[in-house]
Structure formats: structure tokens, C-alpha cells
Design brief:
Strands 1-2 form a two-stranded antiparallel ribbon. Helices cover 72% and strands 1% of the residues. The protein has 14 helices and 2 strands; from the N terminus they run ααααββαααααααααα. α3 runs antiparallel to α4 and α4 packs antiparallel against α9. With 293 residues, the chain is mostly helical. The protein binds geranylgeranyl diphosphate. The site of geranylgeranyl diphosphate has 16 residues, from α4, α8, α9 and α10.
């Protein structure tokens, strides 16, 4: 575990260095676009999606240099989604990653455009990703577009926004979160499969694992939301409850929601055993992503 932790730290440093390199400020009249992008992306994010992409690529013995740009593209999409999710028209959040949200630092219109820039730039990067054939690049573009678009994250967000005040059933909630959160996790692992030329069996395996991790991550987030608010206020009313949202905790209760996370993680670990190589790195990422914050 100790060795894996060190190796993970090395991956994290490489991801952060790549993001830093890709987001250099351009001394143009609209320099504040690049400054805002740096503020939003280079803050203290956990980089779970890029780390999953690198770990999946490493399963097949492919060096990080082949995966760092695609992994960064995943992070740019994730950061754009956080910027837009925090806006007054959506969650209206004042803080993100322990600092004021982008629209609190820059005018709201500028924050929207910074999200648009990151979204567009992610695809530009994939179209030129180093060490990869044209076929692999186009596959990455397709996977990311599907994961982030109408059938993926944006579609999930639309379902989320339109579900406020409604009582969702467990199935609907699961469908919503598989799109909003799950597809991007799945894309991270599928990136690893494409970059590494994985066979169909391993591709499908990583797809299934990604979906389970994404869903577990969302349920865990609902659980943490309730636990943190209980610690802060002395009683367990989360912001989701205040916003009248159906969550896994409102549907299942806290204990059963936690059990659902554990079950999904256990299923994920069972699937890991079928992967072609040492999966310790993936386990370490999960361990860190799911430790109670
Ligand atoms: C606005 C198009 C659009 C989509 C928004 C924000 C979003 C879609 C999806 C994320 C959904 C979400 C808030 C899930 C809860 C899980 C969560 C806490 C996400 C934040 O991701 P982390 O924990 O954040 O990976 P860091 O800051 O570490 O990158």
C-alpha cells in the first residue's frame, strides 16, 4: 500500500504539472480568460478522473506520457462542469475546493465563458494528443462527447435540475446519477482502455467498473453531505434536503445508503480481480476517494 501511495503521488504530480503546462497564461488582450481557467483548474482538486485514467493505462504497461493529455482533458471537462454547477442559475455555491467559486472572483458572464473555454479546449487537446494514432484520438473524442453530453453528464444535470421538489424513485435517481456522475468516471477508465488497445473483454470490464465507481461516488457524496451537516449544525439536515432534492439518503436512510456504497465497492473489487495486471493502484485510488471527508 505504501509503495502504491508513493506511485499515486507521482501520478498526481505528473497530472498537476501537465495541467499547469497546458493552461499557461497567454499575454493577449483577453488574458483574464486564461487566468480564470488557471484559478478554476489548478486549485486543490483530487484529480480522481485523471488518476483513474492513468491507473487503467498502467494496467496494460503503457507509459503515463501516452495518457497525461487525455487524462487532463477529463479534468478540464470536470472543472467546467463544476464552474457551471456552482453558478447562481444552478446550485448558487459560494465556495469550491475551499476557495470562492469562480463567479465570486470574476463576473458571472466571465465564469460561464471560462467553463465554455475549458469544455472546448478539452476536445482540442484530444484531437492533438501525443503518441496516439488518429483512430485512438477520434475514439477518445467520441467517448468524452458521449460521457459529457446529452446522454451523459449534461443530460443527468438536466434531470437533476428538473427533479427539484419531485419525489424520485430509486430507479430514476440511479439513472440520473449514472449520467451526471457515472459516465465521466466510466470515460476515465475507457480512456485507459483505448490508449492501451485493450481487448473487448477488458474494455467491457472497465466500462462496468467505471459505472459502479461513479454510482458509489455519488451515493457516498450524499452520505457525506448529511454527515457534514450533522457535524456542523448538530442535526442532520443537508443542503440537498433543504433544496428539496431526492437523494440516496432521503430514499434509503443513512445506514442503508452507506451499505449501498460498500456493496458497490465490494462488487468493484471483485471485478478488479478479472483485470489483466496488478490492480493495487486502482484500489488505492478508491480507498482515498471514499475515505470519509
Ligand atoms: C453543469 C453541465 C453541468 C454539469 C454539472 C457538477 C456536475 C455536473 C457533476 C458533478 C456532480 C456532483 C456535484 C457530484 C457529486 C460528487 C462531487 C462532490 C463532485 C465533485 O467532484 P470531486 O469530488 O471534486 O472529484 P474535486 O474538487 O476533487 O475535483
Amino acid at each position: 500500500m505504501q509503495t502504491e501511495l508513493l506511485a499515486l503521488r507521482n501520478d498526481l504530480e505528473e497530472v498537476n504539472a501537465t495541467l499547469e503546462h497546458l493552461l499557461q497564461t497567454k499575454e493577449l488582450e483577453h488574458v483574464h480568460l486564461y487566468e480564470a481557467a488557471r484559478y478554476a483548474v489548478l486549485g486543490p482538486g483530487k484529480r480522481i478522473r485523471p488518476l483513474l485514467c492513468l491507473a487503467a493505462t498502467q494496467l496494460f504497461g503503457i507509459p503515463n506520457s501516452h495518457a497525461l493529455v487525455p487524462a487532463s482533458a477529463l479534468e478540464l471537462i470536470h472543472c467546467y462542469s463544476l464552474i457551471h454547477d456552482d453558478l447562481p442559475a444552478m446550485d448558487n455555491d459560494d465556495y469550491r475546493r475551499g476557495r470562492p467559486t469562480l463567479h465570486k472572483v470574476y463576473p458571472e458572464g466571465h465564469a460561464i465563458l471560462t467553463g465554455d473555454y475549458l469544455l472546448t479546449y478539452a476536445f482540442e487537446l484530444l484531437s492533438n494528443a501525443p503518441h496516439l494514432s488518429a483512430e485512438k484520438r477520434i475514439n477518445l473524442v467520441r467517448i468524452l462527447a458521449e460521457a459529457a453530453g446529452g446522454e451523459g453528464m449534461v443530460g443527468g444535470q438536466v434531470r437533476d435540475v428538473s427533479s427539484e421538489g419531485k419525489n424520485l424513485k430509486l430507479n430514476d435517481l440511479e439513472e440520473l446519477h449514472l449520467r451526471k456522475t457515472g459516465r465521466m468516471f466510466q470515460a476515465a477508465l475507457l480512456f485507459g482502455a483505448v490508449i492501451s488497445d485493450a481487448n473487448e473483454t477488458n474494455y467491457q470490464l472497465l466500462k462496468e467498473i467505471g459505472e459502479k465507481i461513479g454510482l458509489a461516488f455519488q451515493i457516498h457524496d450524499d452520505v457525506i453531505d448529511v454527515i457534514n451537516s450533522a457535524q456542523k449544525h448538530g442535526y442532520s439536515v443537508s443542503s440537498d434536503q433543504t433544496n428539496n432534492k431526492t437523494t440516496y439518503v432521503t430514499l434509503l436512510g443513512l445506514d442503508e445508503a452507506r451499505t449501498a456504497v460498500d456493496t458497490l465497492l465490494q462488487e468493484t473489487k471483485t471485478l478488479f480481480e478479472k483485470l489483466p495486471a496488478n490492480q493495487e493502484k486502482l484500489k488505492t485510488i478508491l480507498h482515498r476517494a471514499f475515505s470519509i471527508k
